[in-house]
Amino acid sequence: MRQVYDKRILRAVLCFALCASVVVAGLFVSAQVAHAETISEKQAEADELMASIDSLQTMLNDANAEYDRATLEHERASEAADSAAICLKEANLRVDGLQEQLALCAASMYKSGGTASMLEVLIGASSFEEFVALWDSFERITEQEAGLIQESKEACALAEAAEKELAEQEAKAEEEAENAKAARDEIAAAKDELDEELERVNEDIVMLRAKEESERLAADEAMRRAQEAEDIIGSGGATITGWTHPIPSGASVTNEFGWAGAWDGEYHNGIDLGASEGTPIVAATAGTVSYVGDYGSGGKAVKVNHGNGIVTIYMHMSSQAASVGQQVSAGDVIGYVGSTGYSTGPHLHFQIEMNGTPVNPRHFIRF
């Protein structure tokens, strides 16, 4: 049986493997996974993003100032256009008033007060003196009022031209304000996007640092536990009394422990012992059965707790012959060789752990 372990932490404890999996899962929470894999690369990416954000902030400040200026200009143009419209209305009212006054003055000259024209009034004069007086009065009224009307019309024309020009200026100012707003919003959106990206990168940096620290602590712990195992086991290659071969009828080693038995890049946590289907498997030393059941890729398995942090695991069984809580002695049958789980043929994967760290079974048993 083979299980995957990081080369940098060959002998890391299983609890660290769980912590590492949580850290790795956290690294992929972000919807956009960055290409950089190291803290220095991530930091360089963050620095580049911050420089871009700083440039965009400068541009955004300028865009905000331009938008404020254009908005103020539009407000002023609108006020000027409104004032011009009022002036034009007043000028038109003045022309209408003067024309009305002229009509009233002409009407007052009618003798009969009827609907006769001015020409008829003049022709109907009773004497030449009356005709001259009427004509003179009409001439004065006409010149005076006509002059006022012309003056007012000219003022009206100027007001109309001013209104048109200011309306065009207002439209132009409005367009500039809209363009300034669009430019400002575009820069702000780009900056917001970079801010979000920077936040994701900073989160990646935090997670990478946490992972790095976890690996460092796990490596230290693995070394401590490995040394602890060496202290318990004694010198390398020695065997410990009270232990027996898990397949006493005889079985050859088909795969070694550690990287010596690595296959397809996977670290091997035990020793594989080849034997025919149904060959009895025994407890390697005295202990208490702590697990009987399916062990994932290890298929049907039995675990025995021997105290002092030492556990043996027997995998790929065709069937188990032990129950949880059962007290066993060295040589007691606990199962039979099989090829369950991830296996290429009948064999026993025999694994020894000390405080959760897999150790080489050859330290305990001479195979």
From TrEMBL:
Superkingdom of origin organism: Bacteria
InterPro entries: Cell_wall_metabolism_enzyme (IPR050570), Dup_hybrid_motif (IPR011055), M23ase_b-sheet_dom (IPR016047), PcsB_CC (IPR057309)
Ranges for domain Peptidoglycan hydrolase PcsB coiled-coil: 93-155
The entry's keywords: Coiled coil, Signal
A Pfam family annotated for this UniProt entry: Peptidase_M23
Signal sequence range: 1-25
Coiled-coil residue spans: 39-80, 149-211
Residue span, M23ase beta-sheet core domain: 267-361
Coiled coil listed as a keyword: yes
Name used for this protein in its record: Metalloendopeptidase
Species, as recorded: Raoultibacter timonensis
